[in-house]
Amino acid sequence: VQRTLQALTTLVERELAQYAGASVQLYAEPIIQQRIQQAFDYIFTLTYWPQFRVRELKLLNAATGMVTIPFANIKQWDDVQFVFRQWSDRPIPELPEGFSTQNLIGTQAQWLEPRIDAYLFTVYPLTATDQIEVIGRNRPAALFNPTDVVPFDDWAIVHYAAWTYLVDDASNPGAASKQQALFDTRIKQLKDQSEKGVIYLNPRGAQDIPQRWS
Amino acid sequence: MRRNRGSVSLLPRLPSVPMRNSLKPITLRDFSGGWNVIDDDMNMSHKFAKKSYNMFTQPDGTVQVRYGTKLFSDLRTRFAGGETIINGYYFQDSFVVVSSLGNLYRVLASGAHSLLSTGIWNDTDFVSFAIFNGHLIVCNGSDKPLDIDSDFTVELLQDPATGSNLNVPICKYVISINRYLVMAGDPLFPDRVHISARDARGTWFGDPPPNDATHIDIGSVLPSANTIRGLMGFRGKVVAMFAEGLVFGTLGVYNDTGSHTPSFEDGVEGFGSVSHRAGVAYGDDGLFVDLEGVPSIKRTVLSASFKPERVSDLIDPEVKKALSTLDFGILENNVFSIYNKGDAQFMLFIPNATLTAQRVFVFNYRPTISQQAWCEFGGWNFVAAMKSQAGAVFFCQADGRIWVYGNKENPLTKDFITGTDDGDSIAFDYEMPWVDFGSRVNTKTSKYISFDTRGKSEFTCEMFVDNILSEAALTTDFSGGEQGGFGSGDQPYGGGRNTSNKKLYAWPSKFEIMKLHFYGTADEGLSFVAISMHCLSGGIMRP
What we know:
The complex is a heterodimer.
Chain A: H1 5-15, H2 28-46, E1 53-59, E2 80-85, E3 111-114, E4 121-124, E5 131-137, H3 154-169, H4 173-194
Antiparallel strand pairs in A: 1-5, 2-5, 3-4
Chain B: E1 24-28, E2 34-35, E3 48-49, E4 51-53, E5 55-57, E6 63-65, E7 69-74, E8 85-91, E9 94-99, E10 104-107, E11 113-117, E12 128-132, E13 135-139, E14 146-148, E15 154-156, E16 173-177, E17 180-184, E18 192-195, E19 214-217, E20 228-234, E21 237-242, E22 245-250, E23 263-269, E24 280-282, E25 285-287, E26 295-299, E27 306-310, H1 316-324, H2 328-334, E28 336-340, E29 345-351, E30 358-366, E31 371-377, E32 382-387, E33 393-397, E34 401-405, E35 426-431, E36 444-455, E37 458-465, E38 474-479, E39 505-511, E40 514-522, E41 526-537
Parallel strand pairs in B: 2-3
Antiparallel strand pairs in B: 1-41, 4-35, 5-6, 6-41, 7-34, 8-9, 9-10, 10-11, 12-13, 13-14, 14-15, 16-17, 17-18, 18-19, 20-21, 21-22, 22-23, 24-25, 25-26, 26-27, 28-29, 29-30, 30-31, 32-33, 33-34, 35-40, 36-39, 36-41, 37-38, 37-40
């Protein structure tokens, strides 16, 4: 279940045996909410969760190796999972750091090099003209507000936040270990679920994916 | 610590160094020291308070918001324009109240009132009382004394044999002791003590025999003293108060010719008094007010002599500051005190120079359990204090209203409650000294705070850290532990942070020393029993 940041805060407060409720914990709430934000950010980057997956089609500008329009949903290079040329199922690889690009010529994209701006990467050769498809994950734009729904499993986030809070308290190692174990277990369950889909084994050609079992 | 292998773990693998630091609870539960402005609050036990306004110390070491007041009687309907209460006294079953026009009023236990006399006295600004053989004697220093009979008949004090008051002295101060009526504050003889005939309140020096009345000038006992500021009867002795010191007198000494020869030979310099109305005798102790603070005398067990002490050492600067702006007229007429038996409190009322405001220095004094704690009350501006035979304390407001002060049996939680007004909340302010939890230079990381409180009032708790007073590190509003939940009386919006709830309230800060400060306006009572914090103890280095 996905809950608002405030609802998650209340759950964490109860896990910590703190007095729960909006604005009751004047000093714990900002800390707990930061732990929740931290939990989400960590979990978000733990793997490419299918529910955050987005695909964006872009044209290369054939001059500087950049796409013509910056990316809107994929916000940083870390969130790029695959980049494909048109008519290809083989991802364009990342340019090795010891590889010289000065003799690269042509119009077909061969390499990617990360950027820090909204164009995300530079394609080599710079004169590549392909249309590309970029698969990545859509990271929430900013820090969550109390009324924002945090788009991930509530208990995974609650256990993570409670665990990190309890570790800092140093009051009850057993309680901290419990939260850690619950988080580990829950996140493993979720990862297993995320990997239940079909694994695409033959990037060179069409694969016979069964649609039904009769 | 056994690691959870084979699953996702967020923490990097740590070297196998044992982590032993744990959260330790620290409880502060002794507030018995009271207000202390002498010692530096960086080096003061936490049982003392840097500020204790409208909060007094209970004998069990807790600290409580003072009681409120409720209207007992209202003389305003009887008062002429500009008429004010000067003083009052409990007599028989009633209070006798004297006004600025010299009128006397009787106030019954029901609060009903009647005029006792008018026109006998001129305008007056001071009144003292003494009960002698079932009569209430009233003096003002400008008119002949009055004599109130047990049936509340008011007449001038006079010699019963002659029916004359020719020799009755005009004095400000009157006491009764050892079968004598004693007066002083004679405007013509400022160091003279007048002593009546034995068992005869109206027979004074100069009246025909049989008459053993006398007078004695005692200014020479203390070389620097010349004006008696008050009298007190204390353990069989007459205590004549000079600003410069006290003189002890023994009555009932007769010479071979049968003349009364009282002895005033024992003087104590440096421990004086400036106000007859501020002297209080209670048990083995007598408390006074001089220009420096509150001296006391205590009768020694072995020699029966008097041992002077200065009980207000811890707050002398504040008392001196309050007294320093006042002239002797205000000191004599408007500084007064009362001993509140119910809470064992000596309450000293000191007005400002314009009589528009008042500070009340309160000494919680129970010698049998070694309780000696000061605090300050405020929010009042009374002109007199009285107490009934049962020990209830009453305060007179100049305009004619008389208020009863709360006590354990009737714990009024607001000030100035009337039949139509549920009263004013009582502002309170309690500031603890800096606390280092036993190690001055080690850092402490606080995590949680909790309270044991009584009452239902809300309060604000501030914590200052590391001698930085410009801004509180943490500030939160809490509610008294006896406040009910939703549907059970008033709560602050959202239900408040009830201090009886044993769930944790976060209190995150890092410090070497810390100071807690509580304040608010109480309307449903509040007392602090204990304050607990949960802290991690650290090293001496600060990041």
